Amino acid sequence: MEWLNANIAYWHWLIFGLCLALAEIMLVSFVALWFGLSAIIVGLLLWVIPFSFTLQLLIWIVLSIFIVFAWFRWVSPHLKNKTFSGMARESMIGQIGSVIEYNSVHQGRGTLRFPAPILGNDEWQFICTDMVALGDRVIVREFSGNTLIVSAK
User: Do residues 40 and 67 touch, judged by C-beta distance below 8 A?
Assistant: First the structure.
């Protein structure tokens, strides 16, 4: 232990931290990056305040656990992809639109409008088995080709 106290310098921690951060390129998760960040913090602390190798290891372990926990607990859930890019079906089902054109004689077909464009268009053709009137709100249940299958809301 005496050898470690005498020979481990701040730049060892900085190099170790950078190696862990660079190893993150090869890995899928962010875990190695946070271990590397912890090592860099220990290196910077050791640069300012010299302390024993045992305390260095303890600080690195505690910091690593805290940063990994904070990442998965508070940061990662906010970074989820909330867009429906590439998922047309998922972005349409459950949307509510207003009927702007309806022809009950022609197999319940019509046109509806969404308050905001969905998948680049705010007006869509629909098929509805329920009786609806102009201005009624309908909810998208499924697709049939490029036509929406809706039901009355």
Answer: no
Residue 61 shares a structural domain with residue 95: no
Mean pLDDT per block of 10 residues along the chain (153 residues) reads: 80 94 82 92 94 93 94 80 64 88 81 86 88 89 87 87
Q: Looking at the structure, do residues 38 and 95 belong to the same domain, yes or no?
A: no
Residue 104, both tokens: 């009950």
pTM of the model: 0.52
Residue type (1 letter), 116 = A
Which tokens belong to 30?
């962010």
The closest of 80, 88, 67, 98 to 143, measured between CA atoms, is 88
5 falls within a domain: no
